[in-house]
Amino acid sequence: MSFTAEIWKKNAALFETIRTMPFNQELADGTLSKERFRHYMIQDAHYLVAFGRALAVAAAKADNADEVVQFANAAHGAVVVERSLHKDFMEQFGVSPATFSSTPLSPTTHHYSNFLLANAWGASYPVALAGLLPCFWIYAEIGRDIIGRAAKDNPYDSWIATYAGDEFHTAVRAVIATVDRVASVASEETRRDMHIAYTHAAKLEWMFWDSAYRLEQWPV
């Protein structure tokens, strides 16, 4: 069994909890409120800046030239390509640039962003990658799951199509292959730390969608 197959199996119950959570269930059947989706979009656009920075750090730590390029390109995609998609959604759902810029990171977005950056800077290259993997892999699998059961004329069709699409899945498979490569030559201690980083980030994926569903704000 590959390292990523092992890590997916270990976290299968957590993925099922994410797959069946109210945000993703309602996204699939098209009943998710615009207010909740707007909250998600704004926070995700903030999050992608931190994700892009963490990917850039991973690129700097890469131990071969191909992976420097792989993660530098992924950082570019997170900040430029995906944020462009968010801009289109924001226009569609009535979020002005002023509203976006004046909306602070929610507690969960703040937590997740800081975890990724701390893990990317402070951990080894393999552990940094393991912490970044859930955002790729879980999104790809959620996109694939939702497109298979999405309601017709779903207002969130373009979001679903992006994360279920071949281009995104090709990039995700490449990241999985890189994680398997670095894990294959890592020590048992490093592999253990990779498991911990992956699971923590996967839990934060659940928390992120849940926080959008709850329209999370700072309590004080």
From TrEMBL:
PANTHER family: BIFUNCTIONAL TH2 PROTEIN, SI:CH1073-67J19.1-RELATED. One of its GO terms (molecular function) is thiaminase activity. Belongs to the TenA family. Catalyzes an amino-pyrimidine hydrolysis reaction at the C5' of the pyrimidine moiety of thiamine compounds, a reaction that is part of a thiamine salvage pathway. Thus, catalyzes the conversion of 4-amino-5-aminomethyl-2-methylpyrimidine to 4-amino-5-hydroxymethyl-2-methylpyrimidine (HMP). It comes from Herminiimonas glaciei. The gene is tenA. This is Aminopyrimidine aminohydrolase. Keywords: Hydrolase, Thiamine biosynthesis. Its EC number is 3.5.99.2. The lineage of its organism: Bacteria, Pseudomonadati, Pseudomonadota, Betaproteobacteria, Burkholderiales.
